[in-house]
Write a structure and sequence with these properties.
With 285 residues, the protein is mainly α. The chain is built from 12 helices and no strands.
Length: 285
């Protein structure tokens, strides 16, 4: 199948799932929304494992990587959902999506040698993120309360970006041992367990009203479907095209915010968003 199809399917699914998280997080809390999303994802991935029946690897040498991946997934998504609930999405999405810059930085620390194009893409991404954050703050200068809230949102988004880079880096090191599908599946199970432990320790009771179940099930299905589309496309020729198109999932989230929430985005902020995703797309290739 055309790699552009898999990439677009992944971006649409992941971007829409993140946008839906704004509503579910505001309605039932970001921890409960994440609990429902992870539970749905684990169920669907488990069913997919039964259908595909990939050979399971029981090598214990990489379990610490799966553990890091799972815990970082919980931290990243909790912060992401909190940031999306606070808004504006047009600030949160580009900042979190810039995590490939940190992934490459970690790879450099581990001995990788990026090309000149990689360094240029990292610079473009960083410039884009700075512009997005600065433009957002300038829009809030006339309202001190809104400005303080925006600075908090930026800090939450940066925290999510850091956790995203950790989970991706750990996952990349685990994939050669366990394969992409098993890495995602076990990582999500660990993430679900970590979230339940966090909620128990902080004495948070899950809030899952029956009327929200269809919405939460759709959100979890889209999230899991986005990763499955990415993996399916990556197993065929044109994997680099799939990766580049899939990396633009944040654009889908921003566009949905513009159309449905009618978020106000100025010309300078648009420039930052475009630069960020150009850099991210290049690094993903």
């Amino acid at each position: 199948m055309n790699p552009a199809f898999w990439g677009a399917a992944s971006a649409l699914n992941l971007g829409t799932a993140d946008f839906m998280a704004r509503y579910s997080s505001r309605a039932i809390g970001h921890a409960s929304a994440l609990l429902a999303m992870l539970a749905t994802g684990v169920l669907l991935l488990s069913l997919w494992m039964v259908v595909v029946q990939p050979p399971l690897v029981w090598d214990l040498s990489g379990w610490h990587l799966l553990l890091i991946n799972g815990i970082a997934t919980t931290v990243m998504t909790l912060l992401l959902y909190k940031g999306l609930a606070r808004g504006p999405i047009s600030v949160v999405a580009p900042i979190v999506a810039s995590h490939p810059v940190l992934v490459v930085t970690i790879a450099v620390a581990l001995g990788a040698r990026p090309s000149a194009i990689d360094w240029a893409a990292m610079a473009v991404t960083i410039i884009g993120v700075v512009i997005v954050a600065q433009a957002g703050q300038e829009q809030a200068e006339d309202n001190p309360e809104r400005g303080a809230k925006l600075r908090g949102t930026i800090a939450i988004s940066i925290g999510s970006m850091l956790a995203y880079a950790v989970l991706v880096s750990a996952g990349q090191q685990a994939v050669p041992i366990y394969g992409e599908l098993q890495t995602l599946w076990i990582g999500r199970i660990i993430s679900l367990i970590a979230l339940m432990a966090f909620m128990a320790a902080s004495r948070q009771r899950p809030v899952l009203p029956m009327r929200w179940w269809p919405f939460l099930a759709a959100q979890g299905t889209l999230d899991a479907g986005g990763y499955l589309a990415l993996f399916a496309g990556s197993a065929e020729p044109g994997a680099e095209i799939v990766a580049v198109i899939a990396s633009t999932f944040g654009v889908i989230t921003v566009l949905l915010a513009l159309v449905i929430l009618r978020e106000r985005v100025g010309a300078l902020q648009w420039l930052g968003i475009v630069l960020t995703f150009i850099g991210v797309g290049t690094l993903s290739a």
